[in-house]
Specification:
The complex is a heterodimer of chains A (about 160) and B (about 290). Chain A is an alpha+beta fold and about 160 residues long. Chain A has one domain: Jelly Rolls, CATH 2.60.120. Chain A is built from 4 helices and 8 strands. In chain A, helix 3 packs across helix 4. The longest helix of chain A is centred in the C-terminal third of the chain and has 27 residues. The radius of gyration of chain A is 17 Å and the shape is globular. Chain B is α/β, with parallel strands linked by helices and about 290 residues long. Chain B has 2 domains: about 110 residues, Translation factors (Elongation Factor Tu (Ef-tu), domain 3, Beta Barrel), CATH 2.40.30.10; about 130 residues, Rossmann fold (3-Layer(aba) Sandwich). Chain B has a 7-stranded mixed beta sheet with strand order 10-9-8-7-11-12-15, with helices on both faces. Chain B starts with a helix and ends in a 5-residue tail after the last helix. Classes of the chains: A alpha+beta (about 160), B alpha/beta (about 290). Chains A and B meet through strand 5 and helix 4 of A and strand 10 and helix 5 of B.
Chain lengths: ~160, ~290
């Protein structure tokens, strides 16, 4: 795929909505177009988090290995959503497993490449950090809601 | 005549008893389990009086010798020969109701309370956000919209349940989703690898839809904390407070605003609610002690 096509994919993804064109140009060299066939393991807990993914089509399942409890699927992500933030936080290791549960098309962004860009251009770094902070806040709120187990009603 | 006028007129004509404190007798026509702890009963007046109601209203169902429970009506408001209630088995009354059989008799007072005024949404997009058994009180409003489908613009239903086995009305959801200009997205809080659908809280589903905020009305029903987060998402996306409606739940006893059991600050849920416009209760909605 040509770089101008990836540029369009980046601009069209809701996570990067309204990002200044010069920032898109800056991160373009860190981006690649990827495809995962249904059933592919995208990453595993403990591995180095080299990338994150802007999901374009299909569905990804995020699972945590509960050891004796087995794998627990905690979240699914689809078009317009972001898979992975561990590339941003040292020691850059995945905390979960991720599987394609559909044929998935995404734009992958190289974490190290992006961190270097952010070091060189703090405005870009701040802009991305704001977006990731919102994402993390939303994930944290969602996890809390799941913990509350709102729909469960005990028999009185 | 609008949908509301039509149903309101019928409702006024069909008050089953003159005294709202005296139950009328109803026969169970059908009773079946929707999930392992939620069941639906279809009942018919023993006086053979048609039972008309507005979407969102509730009845007090009486198990003789045990007590009453406030239950929302979940059937089609245009079908008034029988009415249905989907009930979560959580206490003594609802457990006893779940054990009744076809042909048994229960008492009923109602219908009570405010309603989903779907006429307000004519020509607009309608976003319905439901969690758990919250789909039941909204089902009559959904029936009303689908019966007059052309009068409304897009219809979006975001539905969250605890597990895949807790999803209600699956057959209808499937049928509704085939209707033009209707989007139905479901998600569950807990799933395993056998579930191919969405996992995560209902607010996650917002990232899959695009709202035309200026032309959107929303109805929200579910546990309060779920409604709080859902309303936050609607507001964040620019939907006006006055365009958001929700239904509240408290311990209803008399159902006519006398006893005060369901008092919610200056309001009574049974009389002023259960359906409220968000802008009317926003100051108390976020105070969980109320």
């Amino acid at each position: 795929m040509h770089t101008e096509d990836i540029s369009t994919l980046l601009k069209n993804h809701s996570f990067l909505e309204d990002l200044k064109p010069e920032y898109i140009d800056l991160i373009l060299s860190c981006a690649s177009n990827v495809y995962f066939k249904d059933g592919t393991k995208i990453f595993s807990e403990g591995e180095e988090a080299k990338k994150f993914y802007l999901v374009r089509t299909g569905k990804v399942a995020v699972e945590i290995n509960g050891r004796e409890k087995g794998s627990i699927r905690i979240l699914t992500l689809g078009p317009g959503q972001v898979l992975g933030w561990s590339w941003l936080v040292s020691p850059y290791l995945w905390h979960f497993d991720a599987y394609a549960i559909d044929d998935v098309r995404a734009v992958a962004l190289d974490g190290e490449c992006l961190r270097n860009k952010c070091e060189q251009n703090h405005d870009l770094g701040y802009e991305l950090l704001k977006r990731f902070s919102e994402l993390l806040e939303a994930r944290l709120k969602a996890t809390r809601m799941q913990l509350i187990d709102v729909y469960k009603k005990e028999l009185n | 005549m609008t949908l509301t006028d039509e149903t309101k007129l019928l409702t006024e004509e069909s008050k089953v008893t003159a005294d709202p404190m005296i139950p009328s007798l109803f026969t169970i026509k059908k009773i079946f389990w929707e999930t392992d702890d939620t069941f639906t009963i279809e009942i018919e007046s023993q006086d053979k009086v048609p039972f008309n109601f507005m979407p969102g209203q509730f009845n007090m169902l009486y198990v003789f010798g045990l007590g009453e429970s406030a239950i929302s009506i979940c059937s089609d408001p245009y079908k008034n020969k029988t009415i249905s209630h989907t009930i979560h088995r959580v206490g003594n009354v609802t457990t006893k109701l779940s054990q009744l059989k076809k042909g048994d008799t229960i008492g009923l007072r109602g219908p009570f309370g405010s309603h989903w005024d779907v006429d307000k949404f004519i020509g607009k997009d309608v976003v319905i956000i439901v969690g758990g058994i919250g789909l039941a009180p909204l089902r009559p409003a959904i029936y009303s919209i689908f019966r007059n489908r052309k009068k409304f613009n897009r219809v979006i239903i975001l539905y969250g349940a605890r597990t895949a086995l807790d999803l209600l009305y699956r057959v209808e959801l499937e049928q509704w989703s085939k209707t033009k200009n209707v989007e139905i997205l479901t998600t569950i809080d807990r799933g395993d690898s056998s579930w191919r659908g969405n996992i995560g809280v209902v607010t996650n589903l917002f990232s899959y839809i695009k709202l035309d905020a200026m032309n959107t009305y929303s109805m929200v029903c579910g546990p309060e904390i779920m409604m709080k987060f859902s309303i936050e998402e609607l507001l964040k996306r620019g939907v006006a407070e006055k365009n958001i409606f929700l239904t509240m739940e408290r311990n209803m006893k008399c159902a006519i605003g006398f006893c005060g059991h369901c008092q919610y600050s200056s309001k009574f849920i049974c009389k002023d609610g259960p359906v409220f416009n968000y802008s009317d209760i926003k100051d108390i909605f976020n105070i969980y002690e109320v």
